Amino acid sequence: MYFQVISLRGPIARLAILVGILLLAAWMINPRLSHAREAPTPIPVYRVQTSHKVMALTVNVVWGTEYVPRLLTALQEHHAVATFMVGGAWARAHPDLVKQMRRDGDEIGNHGWNHGHPNQMSFAANVDDIQRTNRQIQEIAGVTPRVYAPPYGEFNGTVLKAAQAAHMSLVMWTIDTIDWRPSSSAAYMVDKVLARSAPGSLVLMHPTDRTAMAFPRIIQGLTEKGYQLVTVTRLLNTGIPKTDS
Questions:
Q1: Distance between CA atoms of 115 and 63, rounded to whole angstroms?
Q2: What mean pLDDT comes out for the span 31-42?
Q3: How much is the pTM?
């Protein structure tokens, strides 16, 4: 048996060593190589870029309880679904409505525990607020929310990272009905949603008397325009989440 000894002094060996050193240096200074397994930067989702004619209705619920049954009835009558972003404290106080949302096939999202200001909370406090609400909804409805609508529409880098740590998609809106404002009539809301409808849009609403009046007309109008109303999670899966509205 013969062995060939390669001298480290030869030109080929020196070239191999040089290449190895350069590759090591590139790996150490290039974040794409040295941190290839890091989680992607979280983003606030305002819409979804999709080729499908789908939209999602979202309803943030921490008050207006008396109008929630009317919204649920409208969805059932039109064979449609929505995503109800509920507060944890509200869910605890109204478990029957949360269970009905689940039975009807609507999605239950997370709207924080008691409508605090996320931007004024630490990372740990934000994570705790989200997870506490998730646990409450899981206890009531048997499902863990996958989408998070921050109270007041507030978010910053800390809030985004907290949502990511809790394995949640932070969702905003494309069309704001501004239904919390007394001057926003049902007709105004219907006209605004139908005029600005586009594939991948997210519509923001709350349970008010005017919303309850506008809700069936919005559903019917979007359906007549050829849109399929889906949950937010399903909408996210139809295309590419975008940060611009």
A1: 10
A2: 55
A3: 0.84
